[in-house]
Amino acid sequence: MLAILKNEFFHTFKSFKSVAIVLFFTLTSVVTASYLTSHPELLGNFDSQAAYTSSIKFLIFFFGFLFVFAVSHDIINREIDYQTIRLLVSKTSRFNIILGKFLGSFLFWIGAISISFLIVSLYARSWFLLDYLTVCTVLFFITCLNIFLSTWISRPSMTMFVGILLGILCPILGFWAAFSSNWYLLPFKYLLPYYYVVESNGYLVIPFVIGILFLAASYFMFNRRDL
C-alpha cells in the first residue's frame, strides 16, 4: 500500500496541472496575507481569522471539485484502461489499492493546503485551526467522491466530463441548498459538504462520514469487478 501511496503522490505532484494549482494557491495566500498585513485597518471591519483565510476557503469551496477532478479524475480507471491494474492486483490486495490511491491523492492536497495556511499563519502570527480542519474535511469529501467516480465509471474520458460537470454544479447547488428550505434541494443539502461547513463545529464530522461511505462503496465495486 505504501508503494501505491508514494507512487500516486509523486505522480500527482509531477503533473503540470498540479504544480500550477499549488503555485496558484501559494501566490493567492501570499498576496492576500501581505495585503491584509499592509492594511490592518481593513481587519477592523471583519473578523481577522475569516479575512486571512478567506482566499483559501473561497478557492476550495468554489473550485475544489474542479481542482481535484482535473488532476485525478482517472485515478482508478486509468489503471484499468492501461491494464496495469492486473500487475497491482498481483502484488497487493484490492483494498490496499483503493486505500493507497486515496491516501496518495489526499495527502497531496493536504500538503498544498498546509503550505498556504502556513504562509497565512506566518503573516497573521496565528494558527487558524478550525478553518484548516474545515478545508481538510471538504478536501477529504471531494477526494473520496473522486475515487468513487473513477471506480464506478470505467472510461477516463467520461470521468473527466462528469468531473467538470460536477465541479461546476456542486458548489452552486451546495451553497444554494445550504441556505434554502426548498424540498427539491434537500438531497444536495445533506449529501454535499456545504451545509455542514456553514453550520460548522460538530457538523464537520458528517462530510467525513459520507466520504468514508464513498470509499467503502468504491472498494465493494472494485472488489466485484472482473479485471
TrEMBL record:
Transmembrane segments: 20-38, 58-76, 97-123, 129-149, 161-184, 204-222
Keywords: Membrane, Transmembrane, Transmembrane helix
Listed name of the protein: ABC-2 type transport system permease protein
Species this protein is from: Exiguobacterium undae
